[in-house]
Specification:
The structure holds two protein chains of two kinds. Chain A is of the alpha+beta class. Chain A has helices at about 1-30, 35-60, 65-105; strands spanning about 110-115, 130, 145, 155-165, 170, 180-185, 185-195, 200-205, 215, 225-235, 240-245, 255-260. Chain B is mainly alpha-helical. Chain B is about 70% helix and about 0% strand. The chains are: A alpha+beta, B mainly alpha. The interface of A and B includes residues 18, 40, 120 and 169 of A.
Chain lengths: ~260, ~100
């Protein structure tokens, strides 16, 4: 009898807990995201503290051999990322000069700010990540976020989904199930994001598209969004599957370039 | 007494793993923590982890119409938490609670 009463009380308390959670969600929605802004700010601080703590532990000499290897590995990865960006930059500039400047109104001089990445890049199931710039810096929802210097051939990696005062949530361009219209060698394709900086599309056979070709999005001012990573022929159909990836390992990127419209 | 303390410790550890995991680790870590919490206890912590993860990573303002209403435009973690804690309630009550 007593157990049954405790059971009823427990269920009642749990029902209240559920109602409180739903209410907080609704209040956040009605207040324009004020609760989630606080949550993101604290998570960003946690992230920064975690990264600092990791650096301190690695710098203490406790794991000196491992640390030396990791540092070397990190330097090599950064160099490789830079190299990949520069290699792809050449193709981008060539393509721009050939045709896309005539088709789209590409901005000659990009104005923007450099912002640090303020969160993990692989924790979000929605393909989002945080950057340390917000409405105070002129960031608005829809603002384009790039990896690399746009003057020397950077890549669009996402768009700002929501912006708070100091932080913004960026949705990766190739987030899971995200569709982007793009052009590869004058062939229009509809890319479907797969997360992790990768997307895929179906193209007709015989288009001449090759591995390494630059992928451009007219809806993003003709900017580059990736390169062709692989092609796969399906014998049973008349189409070919093209896999697109961002040429930079996003895990190695510490800062992004945020285009601020004047 | 020991069992009670041990139980509570596991519950707290799972909550911390889920909460911190939502910030630092892959998405399946908080999801597993939520699942384990919901399996063993009537855990409001699972709901908090779900809400926390969605507050961090989910941007609801994309929902403009039904055409945009895809799987990833829903607050998956909060919904998962609700489904886990209430959906597993009969199983937990019947078999998994001493």
């Amino acid at each position: 009898m007593r157990g049954s009463r405790e059971e009823v009380l427990g269920r009642r308390r749990f029902l209240w807990a559920t109602l409180i959670v739903v209410t907080v969600f609704v209040i956040d929605g009605l207040s324009g995201g004020s609760v989630r802004a606080l949550a993101r700010l604290s998570a960003s601080s946690m992230w920064a503290a975690g990264v600092s703590a990791g650096d301190v532990v690695l710098g203490s000499g406790l794991f000196s051999t491992r640390r030396a290897l990791e540092r070397e590995n990190q330097v090599l990865r950064e160099e490789r990322a830079q190299f990949q960006v520069h290699t792809a930059a050449y193709e981008i500039l060539k393509n721009e000069n050939e045709s896309l400047r005539q088709l789209t109104r590409l901005v000659e001089r990009e104005s923007g700010i450099t912002a640090p990445i303020a969160s993990s890049l692989h924790s979000s199931p929605y393909g989002t990540f945080m950057i340390g710039a917000g409405t105070r810096d002129g960031v608005r929802p829809g603002t384009i976020v790039m990896a690399g210097d746009p003057q020397r051939g950077g890549f669009v990696v996402g768009r700002v989904e929501s912006a708070d005062a100091r932080l913004s949530l960026v949705k990766a361009l190739f987030a899971p199930q995200e569709e982007v219209d793009a052009v590869i060698r004058d062939v229009n394709v509809s890319l479907l994001g797969r997360g992790g900086g990768q997307a895929r599309a179906e193209i007709p056979r015989g288009t001449g598209i090759k591995v390494g070709d630059v992928v451009i999005a007219p809806s993003l001012g003709g900017r580059a969004i990736g390169i062709v990573g692989a092609l796969e022929e399906d014998i049973g159909t008349a189409s070919e599957r093209v896999y697109v990836r961002v040429p930079v390992n996003l895990n190695d990127v510490k800062f992004v370039y945020v285009l601020i419209s004047e | 007494m020991f069992l009670f303390q041990n139980n509570n410790s596991i519950r707290i550890i799972l909550w911390i793993v889920g909460f911190v995991g939502a910030v630092f680790m892959a998405a399946w870590v908080p999801l597993i923590a939520m699942g384990l919490l919901a399996l063993r206890w009537r855990a409001w912590e699972a709901l908090v982890i779900g809400l926390w993860a969605d507050f961090l990573w989910f941007a609801p303002n994309r929902i403009e119409g039904l055409s945009d209403l895809s799987f990833f435009s829903l607050p998956l973690f909060t919904l998962s938490a609700l489904v886990l804690v209430w959906g597993l309630e009969p199983l937990r009550r019947e078999f998994l609670t001493p």
